[in-house]
Write a structure and sequence with these properties.
alpha/beta; Dihydrodipicolinate Reductase, domain 2; 8-stranded mixed sheet; about 30% strand; Rossmann fold
């Protein structure tokens, strides 16, 4: 499949940008772009608080286009439901859960499948997703809302590759707003087995760091280092499997290549719409500590 970028939309951008050596026109509004183009796919990468409004404009202007919106679908639950359920009933809407397509996650899913008998059932998941935004909290808030909304959806989408997140039992803010430290606890299931998940997100760090650990009934632990694009399995007190990568392809580009291969080339849904609605409900329901 050959993908061609026909136009860009940027309210503050120049009139022309370059993509793969070719000039691409830049429009100031969705309506302006609609006067010249009828795209197959529209990708929305605005700041999170604008996702729902832009999705609405795109749906009205391009009713036959497939919409891919950056995660999460919206900054609040009502808007997320409008994007996924209301607009999603009329045309295809997908959320770019790019972290769940990262190479280390794909590797870990296969390890868990192949070694299922020796690992036993998963019993606990711990994830920590941190970005160094404390020094620019207002800018980060305008773009991402807070660390939980921005990174919690990544942690949830990765966990969803291994278990079914069922219920959020608590969500607490552990810091002042500029540090944006949150703790979430979830009840999950894997077949008939209960799995507890503990998720931490933060902007109070020096460098970005993102990891997910899954513990199994056998005592084994499967670790994914999302920042390093690496992973390893500890089993019977030793390293039983290891995964690594080089710097030939940037980390996030690897995510989107795999996502686009899955969605655009192979024609598979990124996740079923009901799963996407459930992940956003777990993410965006009001906190327990306010």
């Amino acid at each position: 499949m050959k993908l061609v970028v026909r136009s860009l939309l940027d309210t503050k951008g120049s009139s022309v940008e370059t993509f793969r050596g070719c000039g691409v026109p830049v429009y100031r509004t969705v309506l302006d772009a609609g006067a010249d183009h009828d795209p197959d796919v529209v990708v929305i990468t605005t700041p999170t608080p604008a996702h729902a409004a832009v999705c609405g404009e795109v749906a009205e202007t391009f009713p036959s286009a497939r919409i891919l919106v950056e995660k999460p679908a919206a900054a609040d639950l009502a808007d997320a439901r409008r994007v996924l359920d209301e607009i999603g009933r009329r045309q295809a809407v997908e959320v770019a859960y790019h972290m769940s397509f990262s190479p280390e996650v794909t590797w870990a899913v296969e390890v868990a499948r192949v070694r299922a008998d020796s690992l036993g059932a998963p019993v606990a998941i711990e994830a920590s997703f941190s970005d160094p935004y404390k020094d620019e909290p207002e800018s980060a808030r305008l773009r991402f809302c807070n660390s939980w909304i921005d990174s919690g959806i990544n942690a949830l989408s990765v966990a969803n590759r291994f278990v079914e997140p069922v219920e959020r039992t608590s969500l607490r803010q552990l810091s002042e707003d500029s540090e944006s430290v949150f703790e979430a606890r979830l009840s999950c299931r894997k077949d008939d087995d209960a799995v507890e998940a503990l998720l931490l997100t933060s902007w109070h760090v020096t460098d970005a760091a993102k990891t997910t650990r899954i513990r199994y009934a056998s005592g084994a632990e499967l670790v994914m280092d999302h920042t390093a694009v690496a992973g390893y399995l500890v089993q019977n007190g030793a390293i039983a499997a290891v995964f690594g990568s080089d710097r030939g392809i940037p980390r996030r580009e690897r995510h989107y290549r795999a996502l686009c291969q899955w969605w655009l080339v192979e024609g598979k849904p990124i996740v079923p719409i009901q799963v996407s609605l459930r992940l956003h409900d777990l993410l965006l329901r009001p906190r327990d500590d306010v």
